[in-house]
Amino acid sequence: MAKEAAVPLTRQVASHGEEKPARPSVGNIAVKCPKCKEILYNRDVEKNLKVCSRCNYHFRLTAYERIDLLADPGSFTEMDTDIISIDPLQFTAFPPSYSDQRTYTDKLTAEREKTGLKEGVITGHATIETKPLTLAIMDFHFMGGSMGSAVGEKITRAIESAITHQTPMFITTTSGGARMQEGLFSLMQLAKISAALAKLGEAHLPYIVLLTDPTTGGVSASFAMQGDITIAEPGALICFTGPRVIEQFMHIKLPEGTVNSEFALQHGMIDAITHRRDLRQTLGRILRLYA
Amino acid sequence: MAYDLEFEKPLAELEKKISALQRKGDRLKPDELVQLQEHERELRQKTEDIYKHLTTWQTVSVARHKDRPYSADYIRLMCDDFFELRGDRSFGDDHAIMAGPAKIDQQTVMLVCHQKGRDMKERQFRNLGMPHPEGYRKAQRLMKQAEKFKMPIVTLMDASGASPGLVDEERGQAEAIASSLYLMPRLRVPIISTIIGEGGSGGALAIGVADRVLMLENSIYMVAAPEAAATIMWRDSAHASYAAENMRISARELLPLGLIDEILPEPLGGAHRNYKQMTATLKEAILRNLAEVSALSTDEMLERRYQKFRKMGAFGNLEAQTLAGSI
Q1: A273 within 8 A of A262, measured Cβ to Cβ
Q2: Which terminus of chain B, N or C, has fewer Cβ atoms within 10 Å?
Q3: pLDDT tens-digit profile of B270-316?
Q4: SS3 letters for A191-207?
Q5: pLDDT beyond 90 at B166
Q6: For Zn(2+), which residues are the binding ones (chain A) (predicted)?
């Protein structure tokens, strides 16, 4: 397979005119790979599509980095940029012993400032290898990619837009699951998005989903596992119950990497594991096959 | 039935006095008889008071009461016949989901229910009421069968969540729930769901995407069990009561948010104090809602079901700073 030259990831981020979102554990010059602990130059990591050159660890991408990686240059138009989360339950009481006493509203404001994003998902239209499609790209850096009403609404609108424009739907998941601070509203987003995807299916439009690290909880138990074609990045945590919850409730300790992409492939839950550098090409092939 | 919950202590004391007097039987003196009647009246009054003002965390303990009627109890009291169908036809049979055709008032419906266990042995057998993936696949098989034979679907939800073990991950817990959520919005028969105890996370919702969602007065419906939510937010399940109070999980908090359709009143002191009365209320509500939904054309019913969930959500608009969605 021809190895395409790495696409510099900063290209379109600059064109959005926004500051580059901060990433955890990324210093100015070097970064430590969380998996093999190798110290890597930022410059090299960026050049290598944010993949560790030694152990192949895939660093998490921001939504805009992901779009730059996959969409044809300049083809992306964003939709529903004005939807934001609110605090419908007035989630304000915390255990007194807990250090972080910020209300949900304060937290949202802080997350918006930290990431430069308005919510944990970016939606819109684009082309991949000239094939048009509708996308919803989640971003883990905004409150752990958790899904509340705003995320659910944006994704649902994107799916409905795919039906209107008769394009395939593509979602990249990265999420700790439902957003606890919105209570049952969050859970109902699973039903809402699933119902929209069922409509997409009735319209005979393909739904392609890319699972990235991590895809857990309510997101995994809904649109992450409803794809016609399901692809995962290598080594991504993919499970319904997050390891932290399993450990606290079942009183066991899970070995590192028990429930990941490779596990999901082995147990027949996904179609393929694709390295980041081959993603665009793979999506192009799929889009041509299902056109 | 004893008053055994923490907040029922004043009731337990009254009950003790009452039973002491009752034990005297015929030897009861006239003034003691008056006292007995006084105590009984006071007990009723206090129970009403306490249950009217339950905190969310107290509601959780009622919803999880060891004597609370489970699905099997309602089936026994409500149905003229029930034939349990088992197995998912690909892996095995799950005991936390009980399903099959049943007759309620001359009408055949497909029942799909969570079932918890009463004693230690049954709890183990039912996996504490937490379904494995094969449970959801059994539910899907039977819901499709219901569509084939044009039977309405009635579900009773009572699970703190889906089973969170490693075996469940291996068998695809996420996929099993996701498939149910994908299937239910398009099923061409009426679906009525009732939360009878705990409705916890995707594990409950997987049989709850319905035309009508009803809740017993002291049941709870939540994105994650309070313990799990506290673990996720604060890394310690000991903070569960804070999660419960914040997340608005009781029926009376959820109705104004538009997330459920109806609250079914419970007998005085909770459903476990009068199975028959509770069953009668439940049966009436199921049949009434079923009749209302059945009156719609199939396409109209499906469109309304879609719009019902489509509207759920509370979000803002950055420019206008106004609120949209269901509140």
Answers
A1: yes
A2: N
A3: 999 999 999 999 999 999 999 999 999 999 999 999 999 999 999 99
A4: HHHHHHHHHHHHCCCCE
A5: no
A6: 33, 36, 52, 55
Task: Return the pLDDT at B302.
Answer: 97
List chain A residues with CB under 8 Å of B209. 191, 194-195
Q: Which backbone phi and psi does B216 adopt, to 5 degrees? A: -65, 150
Is A33 within any annotated ligand binding site? Answer: yes
Residue A8 pLDDT > 80, yes or no?
no
Provide the Cα torsion B102, B105, B107, B111; round to 10°: -30
Closest CA to B99 of B160, B159, B150, B140: B140
CB contact under 8 A, A269 and B175: yes
d(Cα B196, Cα B68) in Å, to the nearest integer?
9
Q: Which helix (H) or strand (E) holds A173?
A: strand A169-175
pTM of the predicted model, to two decimals? 0.91
CB A87 within 8 A of CB A104: yes
Tokens for A48, please give them.
């290598």
* Residue B111 confidence (pLDDT): 98
Question: Which of the 8 DSSP states describes residue B189?
Answer: S
Give the list of residues 6+ apart from residue B264 with CB closer than 8 angstroms, or none.
B194, B214, B215, B216, B217, B281, B282, B285
- Choose among A88, A153, A245: nearest Cβ to B327: A88
- pLDDT of A11 over the 60 cut: no
Interface of A with B in 152-181 (CB under 8 A): 152-153, 156, 176-178, 180-181
The predicted structure's pLDDT at residue A20 = 47
